[in-house]
Structure formats: structure tokens, C-alpha cells
Design goal:
- Helix content is about 25%, strand content about 30%.
- The protein contains 8 helices and 18 strands.
- The strands form 2 sheets. Strands 1, 2, 3, 4, 5, 6, 7, 8 and 18 form a 9-stranded mixed beta sheet that branches.
- A hairpin with a 5-residue loop joins strand 5 (about 75-80) and strand 6.
- The longest helix is centred in the N-terminal third of the chain and has 14 residues, at about 90-105.
- It is globular and about 60 Å long.
- Bound molecules: 2-OXO-4-methylpentanoic acid.
- 2-OXO-4-methylpentanoic acid (COI) binds near residues 74 and 203.
């Protein structure tokens, strides 16, 4: 039973669904519907609605185009073998969305309204959820500032939208280990900045280094802290974990790192399996040393889009650290199997992480 009046307008010209789910790629195809809601100062969030997927019209002066006031999230919906449509820990993404909103001076979205809008649009397009191995319906909620005004201040009007994209693996490598470039010149974020908010500015800051890394044959950039350029922070589209001498180690959340939902999930799972998990500063020198002495046992990234992505090879300046034999590690594989097993309803959800869309 909904607490909100979410108006549903179904498309009268449904698109053709992708035939070959092995060729979906990531974030390229969009479904028939989207969720939309507006904010006006003095009124609040209003007119929640599911409508046919459509282009939007904004003033060229809309503040989002000039000062980047926007927040986004990334989530996924899955089709379980028994036909249920499942979301994974949506409460954590909604909580993080409002943490980002507060930092970006965007009005918070009532959590229950966010969840109901999300469920309504996923329900409208549940036939679009792909079922092939490694696929899901990627969900992109986002807010943009819409005041037509060129002064620098928070906008008085916003648009919140949720769009859906049937997707496969984020990296073309799939579960094969990726090669990561440790960046020593550019930085992504600094403490006190917007690094822990999920907003476009952090991703545009990453592009120059990403292109540099791609040109050298690397998939992603691993960022060092913006002050000393010594401590590991995160990868372009994921958080990072190391297994060093039997212990699971990940950079602690310090204000400039994105607090990933899959990061948190991995920490909770590893602890439940009896691993010692350390959230602390990790220097690049420590990694170099661990790689040299053979105690760097596994490296993997975590993210909604990337899920668990094994790293086989790290490069820092002129040094290359090969992680074991370059194949996926046992713990990374167990994490991947467990996280996706719970997400797809194949494993019992003892943590109560999945939410059914009815
Ligand atoms: C996600 O993992 O959902 C993200 O938002 C990362 C994005 C850059 C693909």
C-alpha cells in the first residue's frame, strides 16, 4: 500500500527489448519508463510520477549546466529464478543519496518517497530486467538543479529522475582481473571537498587520468590522497580491497572516499566469515612491499556497477605489481558468488539485504 500518490502513465509505444543479452554492455540502453518528481522552494518535492522515458527540456541557464549542482546514485534490480524482482540494500543508497544532497545543498528526498518511486518505476519496467549470467537492470537515480540563473547559490528548483538500463558487466573484462594504474599526478578529491558525495564533479575530475591510464593499456585509475599522494583512496568506479597476509584491508572512510554500499557489504561478509578486516590508511609503499614479499594475496574492487572486480596488476610510476598469478583470488570469487547469489535470490538472505518489488 503506497503512502504517496504516484501517478503512472504507461507508454503507448513500447520499445523493442534487446534480443541478445550477452551484448548489453553497460548503460547504453534505456527502458520504456522513468520516474520524475519536482522540487520547488516553499512547496517541497511534488508530483511524483512514472512516465514514458522522454527527453527533457531545460533552460540553457539551468544551474546544473554551470555549477554542477547534481547528485546521482547507482543501484540494481534482479530477477530471481522464482520470478521475484529484487533490489539490493536500497535503504543504504537512499541514505547515501541524502548525505550527498546535504553536502551539495540539494533538498533531501523523503526516504519512503524515494523508495516508493524506485519500486514504482522498476515495477513498470520489470519485463526489462535481463536474466542472462552477469546481467541486471542498472538503476540511475539523480537530481539536477534547474533554476535558470547564472549567480552562484543553491538552486530553488530541482528535478529528481530515475532511469533504468538493462546492463551487463561494467568492465569488458567481466570477472577476469583488470589492470589498474596508480595515479601520482592528478588527484580526485581532498578531505573537506566533495569526494564522499556521489556527484558528477568527482567523475569529471577523474577523466584526464583515466584517459592517460587507458592510453597505457590500463582499465582504471587508483587514486592516492590529495595531500601527501601517498595513501590509497579509491578506483574510478569502485572502492578497493587488499588481502595482505591473510587480513582484509581497505582504506578507511576519511571524507574524500565514496562510502560504497558494496564496500560495506564486503566488510560485513568478510567479518561474518571470520576474517580480520582493517579499515585504515594504506600507503602505496606498503603495497609495494607486500607485492615484493609475496604477502599481497588478492586485490579487488567493489561497486554497484562493478560488483566484485578482481585486480591482477597494479602500476605505480615505473613499478608493476603482479598480484599472484593474475587470476581471480579465492576470496574475491567467494565474495562475487555470495553477493550475486544473495542479489539474485539464489542464496538465503540471512542479512535481510534484499527488498522485493511487488
Ligand atoms: C556505480 O557503481 O553504480 C556507480 O555509480 C559507478 C559509476 C561510475 C558507474
Amino acid at each position: 500500500m503506497s503512502n504517496y500518490e504516484i501517478k503512472i502513465t504507461r507508454t503507448d509505444s513500447p520499445k523493442e527489448k534487446p534480443q541478445d543479452q550477452s551484448k548489453l554492455g553497460f548503460g547504453k540502453i534505456f527502458t520504456d519508463h522513468m520516474f520524475e518528481m519536482d522540487y520547488t522552494k516553499g512547496i517541497g518535492w511534488h508530483d511524483p510520477r512514472v512516465v514514458p522515458f522522454h527527453e527533457i527540456s531545460l533552460s540553457p541557464a539551468a544551474m546544473v549546466f554551470h555549477y554542477g549542482q547534481e547528485m546521482f546514485e547507482g543501484m540494481k534490480a534482479y530477477k530471481a529464478a522464482d520470478g521475484r524482482t529484487l533490489l539490493f540494500r536500497p535503504d543504504k543508497n537512499i541514505e547515501r543519496a541524502n548525505n550527498s544532497n546535504r553536502r551539495l545543498m540539494i533538498p533531501e528526498i523523503p526516504e519512503d518517497l524515494f523508495l516508493e518511486g524506485l519500486k514504482a518505476v522498476v515495477k513498470a519496467d520489470e519485463d526489462w530486467i535481463p536474466t542472462a549470467e552477469g546481467t541486471s537492470l542498472y538503476i540511475r537515480p539523480f537530481v539536477i538543479a534547474t533554476d535558470p540563473f547564472l549567480g552562484v547559490r543553491p538552486s530553488d528548483t530541482y528535478k529528481f529522475m530515475i532511469i533504468l538500463s538493462p546492463s551487463g558487466a561494467y568492465y569488458p573484462e567481466g570477472l577476469n582481473p583488470v589492470k589498474i594504474w596508480i595515479e601520482d599526478t592528478y588527484v580526485r578529491a581532498v578531505r573537506g571537498g566533495i569526494g564522499e558525495a556521489k556527484t558528477g564533479g568527482n567523475y569529471v575530475a577523474s577523466l584526464a587520468a583515466q584517459i592517460k591510464a587507458h592510453d597505457e593499456g590500463y582499465s582504471q585509475v587508483l587514486w592516492l590522497d590529495g595531500v601527501e599522494r601517498k595513501y590509497i583512496e579509491e578506483v574510478g568506479a569502485m572502492n578497493i580491497f587488499f588481502k595482505i597476509n591473510g587480513k582484509v584491508v581497505t582504506p578507511m572512510l576519511n571524507g574524500s572516499i565514496l562510502p560504497g554500499v558494496t564496500r560495506r557489504t564486503c566488510i560485513e561478509l568478510c567479518k561474518s566469515w571470520g576474517y580480520e578486516v582493517e579499515e585504515r590508511k594504506v600507503s602505496v609503499q606498503e603495497l609495494e612491499e607486500a607485492a615484493r614479499t609475496g604477502t599481497l594475496e588478492e586485490v579487488w574492487g567493489t561497486g554497484t556497477a562493478a560488483v566484485i572486480s578482481p585486480v591482477g596488476h597494479l602500476r605505480y610510476e615505473d613499478d608493476v605489481f603482479q598480484i599472484k598469478d593474475g587470476s581471480i583470488g579465492q576470496l574475491s570469487q567467494k565474495l562475487y558468488d555470495t553477493v550475486t547469489g544473495i542479489q539474485l535470490g539464489k542464496l538465503s538472505d540471512t542479512f535481510n539485504w534484499t527488498v522485493e518489488v511487488k
